[in-house]
Design goal:
- The protein contains 6 helices and no strands.
- It is mostly helical and about 100 residues long.
Length: about 100
């Protein structure tokens, strides 16, 4: 069960959110949204699994998501919500 507070929350701080992520963080978040494991993300991006974890921590912080079992789900929800904005939409689906 996903904590409803994570689903219904607004952006935690000004200047945060999906649009504030670096290109690499955005790539990691897009892979998480696809359902990729940390190992798969690492392999596909040519980085260490520990680096994926570090990127996820930075993503959760930027999105105002507490780390925990629902963090990946909340990050994907933020990604999907934010990709409705034109500025983020082109980033979300470019390869």
């Amino acid at each position: 069960m996903i904590d409803p507070a994570l689903v219904n929350r607004s952006q935690a701080r000004p200047g945060t959110g999906v649009s504030s992520l670096t290109n690499r963080q955005f790539e990691v978040l897009r892979a998480v949204a696809r359902g990729d494991s940390n190992q798969t993300i690492a392999t596909n991006l040519g980085i260490a699994v520990n680096s994926v974890g570090n990127h996820l921590i930075a993503i959760y912080d930027a999105l105002g998501i507490p780390e925990g079992k629902n963090a990946r789900v909340a990050a994907v929800l933020d990604f999907l919500q934010d990709t409705t904005r034109p500025s983020t939409l082109s980033r979300a689906f470019s390869d």
